[in-house]
Amino acid sequence: MKVTFIGLGNMGGGMAANLVRAGHAVNAFDLSGEALSRARDNGCATFTSVREAVDGVDAVVSMLPNGKIVASVFETDVLGHAPKGAILLDCSTIDVGTARSVTADAVAAGYDMVDAPVSGGIAAANGGTLTFMVGGTDTAFARAEPILSAMGKAVIHAGASGAGQAAKICNNMLLGASMIATCETFAMAEKLGLDPQTFYDISSKASGQNWSMTSYCPVPGVGPTTPADNDYQGGFATALMLKDLKLAMEAAQSVNAHVPMGERAAELYAQFDKAGNGGLDFSAIIQTLKDQA
Ligand code: NAD
What we know:
- The protein is of the alpha/beta class.
- It is built from 13 helices and 9 strands.
């Protein structure tokens, strides 16, 4: 297939390269010259405008920073410029409302479109092992699935338009809250005189077990190798966790959902980010929980 890829940053760069590896002809567009030159090295054809990049293609994939940019790129330069009938896939993490309104406009203009945000970070994007949560009609999902499969290990149909974004922010709200709960628990266990490894051995086999503990342990030297073992570098940046928690809080408000744990997680990550830790992995929040009396 001929596929346009818009937004070749940390995530999009590797995803576009995987589409090339799967045999697709990829037209790449990004505002950054550096991103375009990396895309060229990875076998993409590069363009200086979205309109040129979408000319004559079968599919358009985007991986952009936020909903405002996604809406502007699709409304201004994709709809009415990509061939009618092309399948459109937005893989960015954005708010549910914008995802639904861009898809509604795309459908009105004669396109199928899905929201298909991802779970998994830069390593999964490079390795083609992302998990995609997809919102859209059955027809749109069936058309999007083979393209997404070339970039991921799992492609799950979450429901109608916007359901992919809803699944993504619900999952990440749970992740943010469970990471903080895991961090404060290890900090308290240590103050009570428990050896962290011993507490891990017990809790990882008891009812406190959770993903933040056993797959992403925030304590260096305990559990599998994680960003904690690398001074909290790499992994999933605090700034991105905060972005997702803000989207979750907006979504909760829009449907009048009561989410006290999610709200507290958003507050704590906002404080941690404000203190200059936005670039650290989100599990680094254990440091402030340890330090605060
Ligand atoms: P990034 O900032 O590295 O990449 C975004 C790219 O979009 C940049 O190259 C930028 O130049 C480009 N861009 C911005 N405006 C543009 C425009 N108008 N037209 C074309 N290109 C434009 O960000 P990222 O880490 O790759 O994240 C992309 C999306 O993926 C975000 O929505 C993020 O929330 C989501 N996400 C990121 C991760 C992660 O670990 N980095 C994990 C899951 C989901």
